[in-house]
Amino acid sequence: MKTSIFDLKNSNKILSCYQVNFNKKGNKYERILLTETGVEKQKESGIVYNGKSQVKMLRLYDETGKASKIKNRYKKENLICSVFVLSDGSKNYKLINEYDDHGSLINSKMEYLNSPEMSSETRYEYEYDSYGNWTMQIVYLGGEKISETQRIITYY
Question: What is the C-alpha to C-alpha distance for residues 22 and 27, in angstroms, rounded to an integer?
Answer without folding.
Answer: 5
